[in-house]
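Consider this:
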Amino acid sequence: MNKPFHTDIGDGIAELVIDHPPVNALDCAGWHALADEIDRLGRDERVRVIVLRGEGRGFCAGVDIKELAAHPERIVEVNAGNYASFRAVHRNPKPVIAAVHGFVLGGGIGLSGAADIVIASDCARFGVPEIDRGAMGGGAHLQRLFPLQKVRWMYFTGLMIDAAEAYRLGGIERVVPRADLRNAAMETARAIAAKSSTMLQLAKESLNGVEDGNLEDKYRWEQGFTLQAYMSLDSGEARAAFVQKRDANFAGA
């Protein structure tokens, strides 16, 4: 399988780049491969900090809706791949910087919401369009970025917010021009990589331990509702309408 990402390691920094045109939406196998790679980087003694970014039109547009429209039975494995990837970022022993641009949707929210630091280009747009795709999304990870009422507005409407609003809400560390995004992320990564690896890993574990609630448990709760959503007629109609580029006709069942 051609992996939808590539990785470079140097000077204590691992740079993992999602590169799967057109919008870095990953299929079931891609999500599991991404989780394995992030876990591997966490075990690599050369790595002190991880930079996660994307090429092309956006950081990550989430799951491959076309795959699920053709194979709805894969929802359980896709859920497992999402869970593993987000857990690999959040529970990674190394700090993770998400450098995001363009589309930051669905699974892209899960990755950035699980990260320790988020730096965004001024073209970044954040959203959870799952309600329009017949699924539930990463509300637990979205609440790590934005206040509860904003999360519910985004969740119920399926609408996105831009980088300026995300910065105003305190969800991201910096907003920079698209051309400067990688340099900004690497600048922060170099500052972190200069620290003691032992101290960094202790800091990451201690900060995770004082968070409000268990992120992975909260996301598993959400995923149960995703599976329930997929059992409804409206869920299949939502995915079919998306793939066929037409308005959905919901029966309410």
Remarks:
- The chain has a mean pLDDT of 93.
- The longest helix spans residues 28-43.
